[in-house]
Design a protein that fits this description.
This protein is of the alpha+beta class. It is built from 7 helices and 5 strands. β2 and β3 (47-49) form a beta hairpin.
């Protein structure tokens, strides 16, 4: 790869630092008792309320409908994700230093696979919280579940719930895009180089050797 492409790949890897600096996902709830809204920010290693008391208030609401309390320290994914992203950053920097187009694609495939697994796991987490309800909950509505949407807005009783990617997720998408761009640029450069080499070879073969002419 060219020096520019190596730098671009290094930037792609370093963009993932953003997942440590900003939330990855956001869940917001609007209800008559909370007209200003409450919500959760999901970080790479924890879950916090958007406001200091939001997590406590949401757990209080969940108690009435039989949902388990959200306790970040009991969620194993929040322990796994930080080292996984660190490995992606270090791996991306190694690929940039090595300068191999093939390994850019390997890195991208691993990254996309982890993203898909992460989104599927998040959906399963929401499903578990929304469906496995305490049968002794104060409020019981037969057939009702309270799973938030993965992406978008959903009405749950008197609560309007919105689930959307946050800034950290955008950093991850930019990282993927830059790595894909680097792979494309490196391929384009390889094609140009191959074409130039073939042209030079053809021109060389087409030249007449002056010594041969002199001997004739």
């Amino acid at each position: 790869m060219t020096r520019q492409n190596k730098i671009l790949m290094a930037i792609a890897a370093l963009m993932l630092v953003g997942v440590y600096l900003f939330p990855i996902w956001s869940i917001s709830l609007e209800a008559p008792q909370y007209p200003e809204g409450i919500g959760l920010n999901i970080w790479v290693d924890t879950i916090e309320g958007k406001q200091p008391q939001d997590l406590q208030n949401i757990n209080g609401l969940n108690h009435y409908i039989g949902m388990k309390p959200i306790t970040p320290e009991s969620i194993p994914e929040l322990q796994i994700m930080p080292p996984l992203f660190l490995l992606l950053i270090l791996g991306g920097l190694a690929v940039a230093g090595w300068g191999s187009r093939k390994w850019i694609m390997v890195w991208l495939i691993l990254f996309v696979a982890l993203a898909i697994v992460g989104l599927a796991d998040f959906w399963l987490w929401e499903y578990d919280y929304g469906h496995n309800l305490d049968p002794n909950a104060p409020i019981k509505i037969p057939g009702m579940s309270y799973q938030p949407p993965l992406i978008g807005t959903k009405q749950l009783l008197n609560m309007r719930t919105t689930s959307m990617p946050h800034i950290g997720f955008i950093f991850a998408l930019i990282s993927m895009g830059l790595a894909g761009l680097t792979w494309w640029r490196a391929g384009k450069a390889n094609i140009s180089k191959s074409t130039e080499e073939k042209t030079a070879t053809s021109e060389k073969k087409g030249q007449v050797n002056p010594n041969t002419l002199a001997g004739a």
